């Protein structure tokens, strides 16, 4: 696992969009919490997928297929079995919010846990900070009343940004209802309340 962590650290070292090693470490920690409450989970699969989940993300790397092959080679080099590699790759290539906008992919319990852990790190106080950090990186404005949040987007539409505040309505507020595990849902509800208070206060000050 230390070798996986070192590999990921190097892959994400130049990230300034909120998908850096600190994000990965928080997702790994949340994954461990969720594993402890789900006896059917396989911690080797889930923790490895948590470490690797953003290495092949198409919004972060130019050639996701080549990156996926590189991850497969890395896992083989570390003596992961063919079945383990298949399971891990299946999770990290199907868990993202954008991938699941037009289709809904059924993940195994390990994938459900990592997806919940990643989504928990997108909400609450950290989630607010990451959204503004991401928006700033891509040159989005914080807020513009004339731009309404969009509904029913496909992946291509989702990737065309509007405003950071719209992102709360277009994704972040929806996450509690999309959680797979009970524990994550409970945490997500608290984090959503915190974000709702923030957005209300933000709009009050804005006006
Ligand atoms: P996924 O990788 O699951 O498809 P995203 O692409 O939405 O998820 O990226 C994960 C995180 O990046 C979000 O939770 C958020 O913090 C940030 N992010 C993505 N798109 C935006 C956006 N348009 N505005 C602000 N933050 C964003
Ligand atoms: Ni992530």
TrEMBL record:
Q: According to its UniProt record, what is one Pfam family this protein matches?
A: HD
Task: Spell out the SUPFAM superfamilies in the cross-references.
Answer: HD-domain/PDEase-like
Domain (HD/PDEase): give its ranges: 16-132
The protein depicted here goes by the name HD domain-containing protein
């Amino acid at each position: 696992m230390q070798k996986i962590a070192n590999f990921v650290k190097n892959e994400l070292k130049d990230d300034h969009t909120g998908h850096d090693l600190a994000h990965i470490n928080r997702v790994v920690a949340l994954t461990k919490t969720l594993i402890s409450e789900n006896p059917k989970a396989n911690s080797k699969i889930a923790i490895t997928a948590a470490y690797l989940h953003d290495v092949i993300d198409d919004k972060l790397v130019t050639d996701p297929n080549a990156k996926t092959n590189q991850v497969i080679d890395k896992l083989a080099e570390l003596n992961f079995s063919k079945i383990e590699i298949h399971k891990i790759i299946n999770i990290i290539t199907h868990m993202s919010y954008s991938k699941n906008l037009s289709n809904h992919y059924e993940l195994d319990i390990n994938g459900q846990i990592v997806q919940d852990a990643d989504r928990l790190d997108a909400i609450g106080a950290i989630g607010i900070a990451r959204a503004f950090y991401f928006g700033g990186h891509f040159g989005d404005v914080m807020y513009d009343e004339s731009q309404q949040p969009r509904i029913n987007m496909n992946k291509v539409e989702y990737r065309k940004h509007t405003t950071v505040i719209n992102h709360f309505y277009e994704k972040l507020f929806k996450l509690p209802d999309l959680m797979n595990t009970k524990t994550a849902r409970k945490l997500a509800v608290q984090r959503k309340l915190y974000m709702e208070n923030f957005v209300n206060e933000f709009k009050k000050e804005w006006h």
